[in-house]
Design a protein that fits this description.
Elements: H1 8-12, H2 22-40, H3 46-99, E1 102-106, E2 112-117, H4 122-155, E3 158-162, E4 168-173, H5 178-211, E5 214-218, E6 225-230, H6 235-268, E7 271-275, E8 281-286, H7 291-341, E9 347-349, E10 356-358, H8 362-365, H9 368-376
Antiparallel strand pairs: 1-2, 3-4, 5-6, 7-8, 9-10
Helix pairs in contact: 2-3, 7-9
């Protein structure tokens, strides 16, 4: 904001005379007129008048300065308000043109004159957007109506008409919609399940009678099976009889096996046999009279006989060996004697050393013949 500027020409005037003294001169002139009037009426003396006038001079200057500053402030406020008014007019003109889309002119005083609408303002564009949204909603509304109508006709199977306002209303049920087909499928599935239930009941009825051997009745209200008493003629009853007969057969077989085992233990193995409280055989002491005992005795006798035969064979083998050694000794001696007596074995020359020795066989020159003779003819 601009600061007010004090104009001294307005405060003190252009000249030094009272008549041209500006705001101060005007105030002092008025003050002298009042003082002179009071003095002429005898209310003030000349001395009091002069004193009062002297006191009024600084007050006149102060009041003149305040008046001048106030007047400058007022001029500044007026200029500021005129600027604000100009800015407001410019803003209003721009808003009318840009926001509201109107042509705007000015008169001689600068006041705005509203012209025709150009249709290019922001509000015009907002109106166009709003209208587009309205159109879109109307299209969506009609599309939704069409979708609802199609759903009512195709899905729910209704004949659909529209009133004068375009609203939908149901005319009649055609029973050809998807829901109707689903209902038909559900009813068919129910029929199938009822048939399955009936078949299952019949199968259960037959199984209870044929397999389990029970009398079966059917509840006339609910159709449920009511189990009666057992006839004892079912397959399972026969299986139970066969099982019992099988058990008896196995018990007989076990008893026969026990008897056979007991006889075998007594007759074959030669043991005393008793039975516990469950009929199982209990092995006692050996009585030594069983078939195995006899076989063991016979086998022992055969072993002794075989041992004796083996010893005899050993003796025979030893005699054969002695005879062989004796024959060997005699033939060696005879051969050496023959060769020596004929002069064929006189000396022997060593092929390596060239040493000549008597031709005496080694088995005669060492102890081999003595040992052979001792084995053939052992000392008694």
């Amino acid at each position: 904001m601009a600061m007010p500027r004090l104009e001294w020409n307005e405060v003190v005037g252009q000249a030094q005379t009272v008549a041209d003294g500006g705001f101060v001169g005007d105030l002092l002139t008025i003050a002298r007129a009042h003082i002179d009037d009071a003095q002429s009426k005898g209310k003030l003396t000349q001395s009091d008048a002069a004193k009062i006038y002297t006191q009024m001079i600084p007050a006149a200057f102060q009041d003149a300065i305040q008046y001048s500053l106030g007047r400058a402030n007022a001029n500044i406020d007026i200029a500021l308000k005129e600027d604000q008014l100009t800015l407001q007019r410019d803003k209003t003109e721009a808003e009318l043109e840009k926001n509201f889309g109107y042509e705007v002119t000015r008169d001689n005083d600068g006041s705005l004159i509203l012209g025709v609408s150009t249709g290019n303002g922001k509000i015009d564009k907002d109106i166009e957007i709003s209208q587009s949204e309205v159109n879109l909603k109307e299209d969506s509304f009609y599309l939704n109506r069409s979708k609802v109508r199609a759903e009512l006709e195709k899905n729910w199977g209704y004949d659909v008409d529209t009133d004068q306002d375009g609203r939908l209303f149901l005319a009649q049920n055609l029973h050809n919609g998807k829901i109707d087909k689903d209902i038909e499928i559900s009813e068919a599935e129910i029929d199938i399940k009822e048939d399955q239930l009936s078949n299952s009941r019949n199968k259960t009825y037959a199984e209870l009678e044929k397999n389990f051997g029970y009398n079966v009745a059917i509840d006339s209200v609910t159709g449920r099976l009511v189990l009666g008493s057992s006839t004892g003629k079912g397959k399972i009853d026969k299986d139970i009889e066969n099982a019992e007969n099988e058990i008896k057969l196995r018990e007989d077989q076990i008893e026969a096996a026990r008897n056979k085992t007991e006889a075998e233990l007594e007759k074959t193995w030669g043991y005393y046999v008793t039975r516990d409280i469950n009929g199982k055989p209990i092995l006692g002491n050996s009585n030594g009279t069983g078939k195995v005992d006899k076989e063991i005795g016979l086998a022992a006798q055969q072993i002794l006989t075989e041992v004796e035969n083996t010893a005899l064979r050993v003796e025979q083998v030893g005699a054969f060996d002695d005879n062989r050694k004796q024959k060997l000794f005699e033939s060696s001696m005879n051969a050496w004697a023959l060769m020596y007596s004929s002069g064929q074995l006189t000396t022997i020359t060593d092929p390596v050393t060239g040493v000549i020795t008597d031709a005496v066989p080694e088995f005669i020159n060492n102890d081999d013949m003595s040992r052979l003779y001792s084995e053939i003819y052992p000392a008694s």
